[in-house]
Amino acid sequence: MGKVVTRFPPEASGYLHIGHAKAALLNQYYQLLFKGKLIMRFDDTNPEKENVDFEKVILDDIAMLHIEPDIFSYTSDYFDKYIEFAEKMIHDGTAYVDDTPAEVMKQEREKRLPSKCRNQSVEENFKLWEEMKKGTPRGLQCCLRASIDPESDNGCMRDPVLYRCKLEPHPHTGDKYKIYPTYDFACPLIDSIEGVTHALRTTEYHDRDSQYFWVLDTLGLRKPHLYEYSRLNLQNTVLSKRKLTWFVNQGIVSGWDDPRFPTVR
Q: Of these residues, 118, 138, 164, 231, which one is catalytic?
């Protein structure tokens, strides 16, 4: 008792809907059952999608659901640490910088073909990595990929992208960084760093669990327990935030709090 730590990590790119409410309440259930802690964490790894206004809305929604987190954090709180881990992986040969065009990379992964950059030297990888960190035109052509197994039956293990180069300012770090970690790279790292003991994820993440543990094993970090639960789907409505955003942007609904929407408010 008292040792369980769960987390609820929404992305601040829209209002919470009933699917998010299920996730938040489930995490709170185990927090209360085992007298543990609940971390409320904003996943802000993508500066293109983050919106500070949505953060306040989400916090209001959490309060409306009578959820009381013990800790509040942002994935961006540890950006410097993720870069350290990425550079260790480059040094150890478990990650490489790839300048393959996105469409070609997608086709190579589907055909289980290794990238032409997979076996380049550590020195060349660091040279391109510095270009990414500076946000140069050359750096924008590149991404950092894990060196796992391009022939894996699990598509998520075919050298997934760990870092990408973006010039958009971040709502919390501004223009300090030009590189941002993918969710699948940052998530296991911050779960381990923040002391999460039990990470609850929907079954749609099942194939990505192997990547989650690979990152932690590769860096020698503590591994939380992963538990799956079913994603909530309802008939005659949509729970996709991307689709809900389209309805709002098209003016088809009055806003995120339109009574026809499956949002919390």
A: 231
Helix axes 209-219, 183-193, angle to 10 degrees: 60
The four Cα atoms 243, 246, 252, 254 give a dihedral, to 10 degrees, of 90
Q: Look at residues 20, 56, 24, 22 and name the one whose alpha carbon lies nearest to residue 40.
A: 24
Contact between 34 and 2 under an 8 Å Cβ cutoff? The reply is yes
Distance CA 127, CA 221 (A): 27
Does residue 231 have an active-site annotation? Answer: yes
Tens of pLDDT, residues 30-80: 999 999 999 999 999 999 988 889 999 999 999 999 999 999 999 999 999
Q: State yes or no: is 223 an active-site residue.
A: no
Helices 122-134 and 79-92: crossing angle in degrees, nearest 10, is: 160
Active site residue 55: no
Active-site choice (7, 11, 50, 201): 11
Q: Which of 76, 25, 68 is nearest to 50 (CA)?
A: 76
pTM (2 decimals)? 0.93
Query: What are the residues whose beta carbons fall under 8 Å from the beta carbon of 80, sequence distance 6 or more?
Result: none
b/e code 55-69 from CB counts within 10 Å (16+ = b): bebbbebbeeeebeb
